[in-house]
Amino acid sequence: MKLTLRVWRQRTAEADGAMSTYEVDGVSPDMSFLEMLDTLNEDLILRGEDPVAFDHDCREGICGACSLVINGDAHGPERTTTCQLHMRSFADGDTIDVEPWRASAFPVIKDLVVDRSAFDRIIQAGGYITAPTGAAPEAHATPVPKPDADLAFEHAECIGCGACVAACPNGAAMLFTSAKVNHLNVLPQGAPERETRVLDMVAQMDEEGFGGCTLAGECATACPKGIPLVSITAMNKEWLRAARKVKR
């Protein structure tokens, strides 16, 4: 396939950015989107130009690093991560716009790379347990009802990619934060910090400058791991419960 790419180029965080147009030829439908960008960068390097900076790591849909807005959609037209998006989702001759996440809490570092350390700080505020676990415990040492285990696992699937923030018209991080809160709060190991966890993580989320949630639902639609919108409702209930119980 031959494609036209319109790519956001921004030399530094302080510089002004703009869309640059490139032609990429010989693209196999079996390539991943990131492999296609690798092909573009090989051509740019051979021409003595600066390659396009983009974030990636495992390329297996696990790490959440491949944060790109493709033709206006977080991670592109398929409900998957960018590294698992294949070029068969596009047609020969297509023009594809490639941009970074757009959120004030995710400042652009260079080109398509954004700083998502705000997520790290939200997790540091309460996304952990303080109970000493020692070595790996026996699988059934702490009985957990299967519905609770299933619910915890569903939320633990969040990879922190930030697609929810990029897709939200308000730039809210409620789906991410709720996933991190709920997957610990439903387990007995997370019970000692149940109240402080949700209060601290929501407070940190607000401090990072994410927008307010209006339940538009775009976050859940864009999430490549299928974190449900009801996760936000569950976290709101946890927050109200904690706010009544904990006096600071």
From TrEMBL:
The keyword Metal-binding applies. SUPFAM superfamilies: 2Fe-2S ferredoxin-like, alpha-helical ferredoxin. Keywords: Iron, Iron-sulfur, Metal-binding. Residues 1-102 form the 2Fe-2S ferredoxin-type domain. GO terms for molecular function: 2 iron, 2 sulfur cluster binding; electron transfer activity; metal ion binding. InterPro entries: 2Fe-2S_ferredoxin-like_sf, 2Fe-2S_ferredoxin-type, 2Fe2S_fd_BS, 4Fe4S_Fe-S-bd, 4Fe4S_Fe_S_CS, Beta-grasp_dom_sf, Helical_ferredxn, SDH/FRD_Iron-Sulfur. Its cofactor is [2Fe-2S] cluster; [3Fe-4S] cluster. Residues 149-178 form the 4Fe-4S ferredoxin-type domain. Signal peptide: none annotated. GO terms for biological process: aerobic respiration; respiratory electron transport chain. PANTHER family: SUCCINATE DEHYDROGENASE, SUCCINATE DEHYDROGENASE IRON-SULFUR PROTEIN. Belongs to the succinate dehydrogenase/fumarate reductase iron-sulfur protein family. This is Succinate dehydrogenase.
